[in-house]
Amino acid sequence: MIDRRGLTGSQGEFGRAERVVPLWPGQPPPQRCPRGHELAVGGARAGWLHLYQQPSTTCRVCADLRLPGATWCLVDPTEQELAASSDEPPHSNDLVLRATPPSTRGGLGQIALWVEHDRAGVAQLRVCGPCQVGVIEHVHVEPIHRELGYGRLLVAAGLARGPGYTWSVADIDRDADLVTRAFAASVLSPLLSDQAGPHRCTDMRRARGETDAGP
Question: Is residue 214 part of a domain?
Answer without folding.
Answer: no
